[in-house]
Amino acid sequence: MPYFLAPMIGWFTSGCLKFIINYLRFGKDARHRTGNGGFPSTHTATVSSPVLLVGMGEGWFSPAFGIGVAFLLIVIIDATGLRIAVGKQAGVLNLLTVNHEKREIMRERMGHTKLEVLGGLLVGLLVSTCLYWIFTAWGWTQLD
Questions:
Q1: Helix, coil or strand: residue 27
Q2: How far apart are CA 92 and CA 108, in angstroms?
Q3: Among 32, 38, 51, 126, which has the highest number of CB atoms less than 10 A from its own CB?
Q4: How far from chain centre, in Å, is Cα 58?
């Protein structure tokens, strides 16, 4: 099964969905608001789509799926913890540099809420399910 397609399709799908949501919310300013942070979590969708596809194709108790789940949890913890802290630090630095000539405003929205991560997981689930159906229909699965 061509597992390598799943992260690319998950990333593309999540990024397009994030842009559409931001365009509906903010209009032409959406281009500046799309990036790290926001709904759905593109990092989560990119990692969860191949991990779930491996679970469907190789089995939920396979070593590859177990390793994938560990990696997915690290990504989720990073998105909801570390990158939230980085965004808070950027906010403090932005306040400290208000009066500087060469001020470069740092992006404060870096992390994700639990709902945004859940959205990324749902995108990953939809992508992996669709790919599994397509690969099965085309005979690209390695079922014994």
A1: helix
A2: 9
A3: 51
A4: 23
* Euclidean distance between CA atoms 95 and 127, whole angstroms: 41
In the numeric block, the tokens 């802290």 are attached to 85
Structure tokens, 66: 């177990």
Token digits for 92? 């403090």
Whether 124 and 49 have beta carbons less than 8 Å apart is answered as yes
Residue 107 per-residue DSSP state: P
Phi, psi of 129 (to 5 degrees): -65, -45
Identify the pLDDT of residue 34.
Answer: 66
Q: Pick from 59, 49, 57, 40: which is nearest to 112 by CA?
A: 40
Per-residue pLDDT tens, the chain, 144 aa: give them: 789 999 999 999 999 999 898 889 888 877 766 667 788 999 999 999 999 999 999 999 999 999 999 999 999 998 888 777 777 777 888 888 888 777 777 776 777 889 999 999 999 999 999 999 999 998 887 654
